[in-house]
Design goal:
single chain, 522 residues, seven-stranded mixed sheet, globular
Amino acid sequence: MDETLDGVIIGSGHNSLACAVHLAANGWKVGVFERAATPGGAVKTGEYTLPGYRHDWAAMNLSLFAGSGFCKEHGDELRSNGLEFAPASDCFSSVFPDGSWLGVSNDLETTAGRIEAISPDDGKVWRELTREFPATAEALVGLLSSPAKKRAFAYILYKKWQQSGTAGVLDLGRFLLSSPRDWLNETFESPKVRALLGAWGMHLDFAPDISGGALFPYLEGMANQAFGMVLGKGGAGTATSAMMSTLEARGGKVTCDAEVTRIIVENGEAKGIELADGRKIMASKAVIANVAPKALLKLAGETGNTHYDDGLRKFSHAPGTMMMHLAVDALPDWRAGDELKKFAYVHLAPEIDQMARTYAQAQAGLLPDEPIIVCGQPTAIDASRAPEGKHVLWLQIRMAPGNIRGDAANKITATDWETAAEPFAERALDIVERYAPGTRSKILKSHIVTPAMMEADNPNLVGGDQICGSHHLTQHFMFRPVRGHADGSTPVGNLFHTGAAVWPGAGTGAGPGYLLARKLAG
C-alpha cells in the first residue's frame, strides 16, 4: 500500500533536513528520501582514511549554520540532539612565496597589527572597515537572508536609504556589482592583503574579475574578524546528525538507499514520488526536490512553462573541486612560521593574477598548472577528530574541470579523472611542500575525491561543483535558479525546489531550505 505523508523531500542535504525539521515543528508529517547510503549531501563526516580519523567530505566551515535563522529558531532542540560547535579564533591565513604570511584572527589588534606591518595605510582601512561592519552587515545580511521577493529587497533598500540616503543606496549597489579585484584594488594597497581576502571569492565561483564577487571576500573577512569561525565538534556531520535526530523526535524519517526515479505529476500537480524499487510515496501538501535544476526537469518532466523549463536546462555550473583527505602524523611545518599551525584555514593562493589564471584554465577544461589549495587544519581547533597526537588535513584543490580537455602544464596526458587523479594530487602536494617542506613524509594515508567521484556520490555536485551552480549575477538573487522562481516555487502545483541551486544559494546557512519551510508552514 502506498504511504501518504504531508511532505516528501528528495535528497538529504542540510537544506532538506532544515526544511524537514521546520515543517515537522509545525505539525507536518515529513519523509526525506536519499539515494546514497549516507545522509547529509556535502555536509557529512566519515573515516575516509584510517579508523579514528574523521574527515569532512566537502563542507568544513559551519559559521553560516551557527549564525543562521534556522539555527537561531531551532538551536536549543538541535543542541539537545547532539549539535556541538568548535569555535576558532585564528580563522584563515595565506602564505606567500617570499616566506611571509598574513592571517585574520578574532582579535582586532592582532589582525590589524599584522596588516600594519605590511602596510600602515591598509591597517588603518582594516580598522575602519571593522568599525563600519555592524551597520553595513545589517543591509547585506538582511539581503542575503530575505525571501526572494521584490517587496523584501525593496524594504531593505528603503532602510538603507533612511540610514544613509540616496548616496548610501547607490554605494551599496555599486559594491554588489563589483568584482573582487575592483573592490580589493580600490580598498587596499598591498597585494598580500588583496590575495588574503580574494581567495574567498574562489570558494563561491567568483574569480577576481567576475562582477558581483566583491561581497564574499568582504563578508568572510569582516565576519571572521568580528565573530571568529565555527567548525563542527567531531566534524561538520554534527549538524546533519542533530537535524536527523530532531526530525525523528518529531515523527519524521530519513530513508537512505532510496533513489527517486520519478515525481508523480497529475493534472499539473505533484502527487508524490516513485522510488527505484517501485514504491510510491504520496504527498498531500508538497513534494520538495533538493536537486540540481536539470535533474528536476528529468524527474518531473516538462512543465509546459517554456521560460522555466529552458531556465532549468540552461542553468550553468561552476568548475569542480578535487578533495584530498589526509591522515597525518603532525600538522605541516609551515616555512612561514609555526603560528600558522593554529589556523583553521591556510590558503595557498598567493596572487590575484594566479587566481584569475587558474580559474580561466579550469573553465577551459584544463588541469591548472598552479591550482589553488585550501588547506584545512580542523584538528588544530578540534582534537577529537583524530587519535591523540595525530591530525587530519582537509585539502581543497581549486579549480578542477569536471571534464578534462588537457593540462595547462602539458605534463599530465590523462583526460579521465580515474587516471588523472594521482598526478594532479601530486601537483597539489608539490605546492604544499613548497610552503611546508616535509608534509609528504607526515602522511599516514590519503583519500582522493575527484570531481567525478563527488558527482557520483551526490549528483547535485555536477562536475564536482560543490556550490551546485555558479553564483554569477545572471543566476543569483532573483535569477536563482530561474527568474520568478527564486522562492522555490515551480509551475507545477505542490512541487517546490530547494537546495544550493535556489536563492540564497550555496553555503552551510540552510537559507534555501529554511526560507521554503517558513513559506510552506505559513
